[in-house]
Request: fold
Amino acid sequence: MTKQIIKMTVNGEVQEVIAEPRELLIYVLREKLGMTGPHVGCETSHCGACTVDIDGKSVKSCTMFAAQAQGAEITTIEGLGSPDALHVLQESFKEHHGLQCGYCTPGMITRAHRLLEENPDPTEEDVRIGMAGNICRCTGYQNIVKSILSAAAEMNASKEAAQ
Amino acid sequence: MNVNSTVIGKPISRVDGRLKTTGAARYAADHRPVEGRPLHAVLVKSSIASGRITGFDLSALQSMSGFVRFVSHLDGALIRTIKNPVDGAFAAGEEYTPFENDRVHFVGQHIGLVVAQTLEVAEAAAKAVVVDYETSAARIEFADPTAEVRQPDLYNTGEELQVSRGHVEAGLVEAVEIVKATYTTPIEHHNPIEPSATLAVWDGDHLTIYDATQGSVNDKNYVAFGMSVDPKNVRVLNPFIGGGFGCKGFTWPHTLIAAAAARAVEQPVLLVLSRKDMYTSCGHRPYTEQEVTLAADADGVLTATRHRTQSYRSLVGDHVEPCGMTTAMLYQCDNLEVTHSVRVLNRPSGTPLRSPGEAPGTFALESAMDELAEKLGMDPVDLRRRNHTDIDQRNGRKWSSKHLLECYDRGAEKIGWGRRKAPGQWRDGNDLVGLGMATACYPGYRMPTQTRLTLDRDGTLHVGVAVQDIGTGLYTVLAQMVAERFGTSPENVRVLIGDSDLPPGPLAGGSMTTASVAAAVDDGCRALSEKLRARLVDMGHTPGNEPLVIDGGALRSGPLSVPAAEVIPTDVHEIVAEGGSDDTYGFTGGVETDKSFYSFGAIFAEVRIDRDFGIIRVPKMTGVFDVGRVINAKTARSQMLGGMTFGIGMALMEETFIDDKTGRFVNPSLGEYYVPVNADVNEFDVEMLDIPDYDFNPFGARGLGEISNVGASAAIANAVYNATGIRVRHLPIRLDDLLEDLPR
Amino acid sequence: MLPYYHSYTNDMEVDLAFERPDNLELALDALKTRAFRVIAGGTDVFPAVQQGQLPSAFLDVTRIAGLGGITRGDGTTRIGAATTWTDIVRAELPAAFDGLKEAAREVGSVQIQNAGTIAGNLCNASPAADGVPPLLALDARVEIASAARGTRVLALSQFIQGVRKTTLAEDELVTAVLIPDQALGTRSAFEKLGSRRYLVISICMTAANILLDAQGRIAQARVAVGSCSAVAQRLPALEADLLGKRLQDVTVSTAHLSPLSPIDDVRGSGTYRLDAAQEQCKRAILRAGAV
Reply:
């Protein structure tokens, strides 16, 4: 058994790719599905630039074989919003300057999205701990925290308004 | 300059925010050739520190399906012998031509490249290459007595590294208090989150490279030289760069290797460095040992200053960590000696890392100032005020704009300096609390820059210049500058950067891009404005003396308003003007002026130390900076916050260890090289005085990326002393530095 | 999207294997046939293979029925081998497991806790494995299975034998971590020290499980320290001394720490680690004991 067909749902679309056992999920997403959002930063699961959402959990796609994603439901930054239709979190990162070079940003926002799904009303401390697996070397984190807290408030307000 | 600008200084959100928050911004490794897909390449690096390669055993590779080619020095002259610098360029990372011969100078040197159909095959193949070496004696240990020691004359800016004035010995005799101490700083790595990457695509003798570089023009000229092609035939694209902090500043061997390999295999080649590769492929801040002597009279006036820096260089890279440059200019002192020496070792090459010289140098100088204040019984801020000067101590020139005293005042007020107690006396529960401060400074640099300004028929302005946004916010800043000059909104300005085919600009280093483009944009806007006025006159209009405004698709001057579509002749789509400045400031050989240009600041830190474990936290940090006019309050503030966080890393965490026996870096990963994570940082306070320096450029900005990292480590170390009474003279300060002697 | 958006294949002819069985029997049979690298979350495997050759065969155990999840009964809490740290954090467990939960929250980052498993942490056998001290303090045992020899159970302290060394044979798989029911009222705590606040390798860590009697005296105590010896260690002398003491009378002496043999390394000296362990023991005991 050298190559296998991997079927997974990525950003709502069913995808089938042929991959070798040793191919990492990040490379399948990038090289075979053409995504530019998930980035490779460290290859050792520390920086978080490759963070994607798998079956409702934040996972580092640089330390996972594609074959382990067989049957999985995957959301990448591309699945949250697009340049013409930003997700609340993306808008918030843009407005509160939660980024500089932007390389860590897709993983950062994908992680933040799951954080808010799990804890819709986090404290600053919750955010700082919950985001500790995503390293940013440029901003000093302050605006990232601000972006996430502000997005949380906005998402909660629109939820309340809807009720 | 419109001081009430609605554009300049405003907290405008970055114009690339949409692309970057959606994953649509393309970094070097995200690009692909127009046709087909690239081959993937992986480096083979030396595992010995000194010797020669006697052969490669590639037998395991031949059977690997998907393996394409192994490239090494055995392929003959793939790359022309590099001289440093080549015409039109600033610098290469190393005075070294990859694959030129069989010599090995350090562990991690690039000795071969595997090219394969997929990354997985390339990685497997690179691991399967067996290298035979003949090893020779390596000098790795810093103190190796057989290492050659050099006293370099100049830093890469042309500044003198060996400075002497007055008589230090006489000044020491005059003094009532003398501090003489040795401070050390570790090997540090830049660790931008984006690893360096190069995609090289040849089309005949034309080469396009997508490179994670802080300098597309520098890169273009090196690659053209190395590939023996006309620089006109080389185009370097770097629209987005995932941080650099210096390691992508100069052209490094991997970029030349990727270009050479792509030519050899006649297919596009993508080479993405691994995190581990990054530790030996594109520089680091070398370890420094700095002996500082400060002498003062009873009033705290400095009577003598000596700063001797010892560091090292590799056999192929000439970087010197210029720690004493700050000391030579900062405080009033007539008797001074600054020296720099480097040992030549079989280690990977150093290179500038955010505030090279200034960051480690001020750790030593500003720690010594704190020690001197303690000895004199003076407040550390007062000691600095006492020795403040309006004259650049190196050359007797006045500063163009210096407001350091205000930085001290504001910073002291904001941190609550009055709360400070004698060392070891401030306790809060289980914590020891302390306050410390340091002066920050960084030179103002400006380099020749050209721009192209364009107005199209929609009334949209375009500005093009071959500079790059490494995360600082340059896209936004350029849009603001052009918008300001034409009285419009930044949304009406399209910014083209990150392409070496554009009019040339400097590399993103030395905090010089904003100041450099400021002069060029100003001139380009003037040139476009003149052209447009002439065109209006040709059309029979009589524009007044009012500034030309371009907004809402029309040109206006006073009561006159003409649609852009009418101004621009139907047979052309746009009106183009070029402008720029050939002036250089801050580098030796630049414009002769009677002023010196520097940015200043003051950093204050509060630390809390757990008495049982020696854990150091930095709950508060205040930075007040005099960096000239701030163009964008949002992007500027973010850089300052990031720089101060860099300072926390430098003070408390960051260190690369080298194995003195083998010459290997021991912790080349983000798992073992600690940088601050979100949970390590608190809300910091940043203030910029925002006083324009129009002597420096027409927008009055000086530059601010580097200065925020200067002084931060000394401020923290001084706060640690204030909290505990324990003076730590090395970085990073480790948990076990304090525990034994902590006041319980 | 990248411009060449389409799948492609290449003609690899390398003997690579990736098996992902859904029952234990298949997994154990596979282990008989060739040297597999067992993988679950991969959080330790991938950083390690960066340094050396990539193994040619992987056995993913995360889909094996019954290998994930926590069940209680027969005087035992059974934590399936493939249970992630996040699963543990979210599980409803008695207060005696609070220390384990605290440790679970300190394993790497949230992403690592989502992928990394309890058995992976034990099999990796790092001296700095965050899961080991709290499991020692819970008196955990390790259940191991093989096709040839069936199931065996041994104490965690016997399972981990040294730095990166366990008793696991090539054909064996850890199937569960078994924790005997703790006396009612047992509480626990975990303390960790590193050079940064999170995402950090422990310099020293301590777990304590404490039971107080009705008079507030310590009736049962188990204390374990990690990162201060090749394998994390229980401190029997300290545990014995604690019995009958009130919390306010707890003292930890250097003699209590005699099972530890911390080394000097770049993160902290051995002396520092011993100092820190002493203080951590005290803090963990007091915190575990506090109602």
